[in-house]
């Protein structure tokens, strides 16, 4: 059940134009500070556990601050005993993975072997430290890689961006467009842009603009399923697939 209407300073904070920027910037700046403390100040890697904690609990804190019920937002995971919810999300994700895996891999190969050399020659710059080439070197610990991207990255980010942010923006701009049988709205598009920009707020990388493309699917899955599990599954699959391909092409060490 939603909380009664806020008053006073809570009413000021409850305005989306106030709350959303404060939560978004506060969370990402906090994460950037944590990353900088680990990478530059030599603090232990254990401090990075604050990253998923900030993603998961800043929206909860914000809801309580403005007098709203966090349970009104689909940020929580279903019970592990709820097999229907988990299997349903897995089925939707599996179908989507089957549909995109071939163009995904072919597009990656085309990018690394044709477009990257052409761009580097045209601009006189190097996009990577070494020339990408298929080397058939696999990640050394694929299970750890998958667990990291699902539990440390995908689930917390989907809670923040799709469970909270996209849902909050849908309260401002009601979903109105039918896309593949699911009604979406401007909130999905704005969230995709904020999702990509948020990565660069933490660590600036030229390729972050391309994150918008898979995030469209993450947002669509949130609307389609009413929760974040399917989006988290697909999010993790995208990250793991890119990590495996980056290793195969020698961009990152195994």
Keyword list:
two-stranded antiparallel ribbon, 8 helices, 2 domains, mainly alpha, 254 residues
Quick structural summary:
The protein has eight helices and two strands. By secondary structure, the protein is mainly α.
What would your notes on this structure say?
The chain is built from eight helices and two strands. The protein has a two-stranded antiparallel sheet. Helices cover 66% and strands 2% of the residues. The chain has 254 residues and is mostly helical. The chain has helices at residues 9-13, 16-39, 50-65, 83-123, 142-172, 186-202, 212-225, 229-248, and strands at 177-179, 182-184.
Helices and strands in order, then pairings?
Elements (H helix, E strand, L loop, with lengths): L8 H5 L2 H24 L10 H16 L17 H41 L18 H31 L4 E3 L2 E3 L1 H17 L9 H14 L3 H20 L6
Antiparallel strand pairs: 1-2
Helix pairs in contact: 2-3, 2-6, 3-5, 4-8, 5-6, 5-8, 6-7, 7-8
Strand neighbour order, sheet with most strands: 1-2
Please provide the count of β strands. Answer: 2
Structural class: mainly alpha
* SSE series: HHHHHEEHHH
Q: Provide mean pLDDT, rounded.
A: 92
Share of helix, binned: 55-70%
Instruction: Catalogue the unreliable spans.
Output: none
